[in-house]
Write a structure and sequence with these properties.
Elements lengths: L1 E5 H23 L14 H22 L6 E5 H24 L1 H15 L5 H21 L14
Antiparallel strand pairs: 1-2
Helix pairs in contact: 1-2, 3-4, 4-5
Length: 156
């Protein structure tokens, strides 16, 4: 199955819609501090980034619709199947992080990705598992940000 994608038009529409939606929901997701300390708002950096994305999206739409500058990409399912499986695994990792916890989801996802890409050396898998535990420890003890513990809730 093949179909053609106009890259400027598609990217402009998708990212433009994304930035508008995120700008609209940001006030409900990023709270302002209870008191004014004189520091910039926590919304300033995400807001600047989202406005930048919106401006770039408008430029892409103008290039596509007004100047007809477009790159046509032919999407072939058979050629892209491999990458779409990897994206699906990463989406399952995000879902699994909240369901079973960061460590089990990370071990499953990243070991599967390595196996899927053809890695068969056992030491690489050991390093991957240790790295997932290290990232969990780093967020918990250094950054003081708790990741979903899931099956490892006894470590807190």
């Amino acid at each position: 199955m093949k179909f053609k994608i106009k890259t400027n038009l598609t990217a402009g529409l998708v990212m433009g819609i994304f930035s508008v939606v995120m700008l609209l929901i940001m006030p409900t997701q990023v709270r302002l501090p209870m008191w004014d300390s004189g520091a910039p708002s926590p919304r300033i950096i995400p807001g600047i980034c989202l406005v930048g994305i919106l401006i770039c999206s408008v430029i892409l739409l103008i290039q596509s619709l007004v100047f007809h500058k477009e790159h046509i990409y032919e999407f072939d399912w058979n050629n892209e199947k491999h990458e779409l499986v990897l994206i699906a695994v990463l989406v399952l990792f995000v879902i699994g992080t909240s369901a079973i916890g960061f460590v089990p989801a990370g071990i499953l996802a990243f070991c599967f990705i390595q196996w899927y890409e053809g890695e068969r050396k056992p030491f690489i898998y050991i390093y991957t598992i240790l790295f997932v535990f290290f990232v969990y420890w780093l967020f918990l003890n250094v950054f003081h940000v708790s990741l979903p513990a899931g099956l490892l809730s006894f470590l807190k």
